[in-house]
């Protein structure tokens, strides 16, 4: 699948998600086969003001590329200015957010609320497209509510304004995340325009991704919540696309991923914050292992990295013992290594083109 001139490794994308799409999360997704990840949605104004939080969110590892940024706003000139800044930082693509239902963003006319003003959305797309050379895309919902479904109109506008693709999360703004993501709507959109269409929403198993392409002819699949604690979903989908199957990981493979994830958190965040964030993520991973409730107690109270690694080893030893006794299936050494081995990034890790922003090395930035 191509995004403008960029050849992507597959049609599997990772959703931008506020509070979630940080560097470790994006690396994890890429490691397991996501072709493109995004930094979480940023308000155009915050980018222009270069607020410290925004600039921190815009940091990335050089190895993450291709990498997208997503902008929200409703002032064409503001969006254009922000897009230029983001392009200059080295981002490969810019997505225009017309899908966020949240109050915080929705207070102004941005996020999904802009779907009520298609002409303003058109102006914004036009300004974005004119401001940068990288491909510009748009992500939207089905409409404001069931009485105002205008996704076909949005698709047409996007095509007319030169968007490289559109991504649709087929719930309405009013729905939030309730109900199901009805990809018959996404299929209808696909049938109505010539630019590529990606489906976002409720892909949690390889079969869902296959069905979206097979039954609906949709180009790409963007996954968000489905990879919470299960980033290997990409690997399973890629196997299914090749007519093969990849089983779910064993407990020790899941533990290997948890450890890798924690090590990346330690690279990016202060140790105390990494430990607190890990509590949430270990909860996600626990769900992937039947009967693993005892892990929860071990990890959700972790205060220091040392505690994490000691407890991790105890839990891993426990499962190694069960494997040795033939009580649970053992992972094949090759596959365990592929879950455990660090993603092959250069050492020391390098920051992307935006590194000079703060003039700090990664180590200094995370100390
Ligand atoms: C915590 C959270 C944060 C999100 N933040 C964003 C965002 O920054 N930009 C965006 O376009 N969509 C955002 N979304 C929506 C997702 O990108 C995606 O469209 C939606 O969750 C449906 O896909 P899923 O079922 O695969 O999660 C967010 C969703 C969640 C759950």
Topology of this protein?
Elements: E1 2-3, E2 6-7, E3 12-14, H1 23-31, E4 37-38, E5 42-43, H2 44-48, H3 52-57, E6 67-72, H4 76-88, E7 93-98, H5 103-106, H6 118-131, E8 136-141, H7 151-160, E9 166-169, H8 183-192, E10 197-200, H9 206-216, E11 220-223, H10 233-241, H11 251-268, H12 271-287, H13 293-300, H14 305-324, H15 333-340, H16 362-366
Parallel strand pairs: 3-11, 4-6, 5-6, 6-7, 7-8, 8-9, 9-10, 10-11
Antiparallel strand pairs: 1-2
Helix pairs in contact: 1-11, 4-6, 6-7, 7-8, 9-10, 11-12, 11-14, 11-15, 12-13
Flavin mononucleotide is lined by residues 15-20, 40-41, 70, 97, 99-100, 139, 169, 200-203, 223-226.
Offer a concise description of the structure.
The protein has 367 residues and is α/β, with parallel strands linked by helices. Helices cover 46% and strands 11% of the residues.
Q: Could you explain the architecture of this structure?
A:
By secondary structure, the chain is an alpha/beta fold. It folds into 2 domains: 2-241, TIM Barrel (Alpha-Beta Barrel), CATH 3.20.20; 251-340, no CATH class. It contains 16 helices and 11 strands. The strands form 2 sheets. Strands 3, 4, 5, 6, 7, 8, 9, 10 and 11 form a 9-stranded parallel β-sheet that branches. A two-stranded antiparallel ribbon has the order 1-2. The longest helix has 20 residues, at 305-324. The radius of gyration is 21 Å and the shape is globular. Residues 344-349 and 355-367 have low confidence and may be disordered. Bound molecules: flavin mononucleotide.
């Amino acid at each position: 699948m191509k995004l403008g001139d960029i050849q992507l490794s597959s049609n599997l994308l990772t959703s931008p998600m506020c509070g979630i799409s940080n560097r470790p999360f994006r690396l994890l997704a890429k490691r397991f086969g996501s072709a493109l990840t995004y930094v979480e949605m940023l308000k155009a104004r915050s980018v222009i003001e270069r607020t410290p939080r925004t600039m921190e969110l815009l940091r990335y590892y050089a190895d993450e590329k291709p990498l997208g940024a997503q902008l929200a706003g409703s002032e064409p000139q503001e969006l254009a200015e922000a897009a230029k800044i983001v392009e200059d930082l080295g981002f490969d693509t810019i997505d225009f957010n017309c899908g966020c239902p949240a109050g915080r963003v929705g207070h102004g006319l941005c996020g999904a609320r802009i779907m009520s003003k298609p002409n303003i959305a058109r102006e914004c797309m036009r300004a974005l497209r004119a401001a940068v050379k990288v491909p510009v895309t748009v992500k939207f919902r089905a409409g404001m509510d069931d009485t105002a479904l205008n996704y076909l109109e949005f698709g047409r506008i996007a095509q007319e304004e030169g968007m490289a693709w559109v991504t649709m999360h087929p719930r309405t703004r009013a729905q939030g995340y309730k109900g199901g993501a009805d990809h018959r709507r996404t299929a209808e959109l696909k049938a109505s325009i010539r630019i590529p269409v990606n489906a976002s929403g409720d892909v949690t198993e390889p079969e869902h991704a296959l069905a979206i392409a097979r039954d609906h002819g949709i180009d790409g699949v963007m996954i968000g919540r489905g990879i919470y604690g299960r980033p290997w979903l990409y690997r399973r989908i890629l196997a299914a696309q090749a007519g093969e199957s990849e089983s779910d990981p064993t407990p020790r493979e899941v533990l290997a991923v948890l450890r890798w994830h924690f090590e990346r958190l330690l690279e990016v965040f202060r140790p105390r914050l990494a430990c607190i964030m890990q509590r949430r993520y270990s909860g996600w991973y626990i769900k992937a292992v039947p009967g693993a409730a005892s892990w929860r107690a071990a990890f959700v109270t972790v205060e220091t990295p040392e505690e994490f690694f000691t407890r991790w080893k105890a839990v891993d030893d426990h499962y190694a013992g069960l494997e040795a006794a033939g009580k649970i299936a053992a992972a094949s050494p090759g596959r365990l290594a592929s879950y455990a081995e660090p993603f092959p990034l250069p050492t020391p890790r390098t920051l992307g083109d935006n590194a000079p922003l703060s003039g700090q090395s990664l180590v200094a930035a995370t100390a």
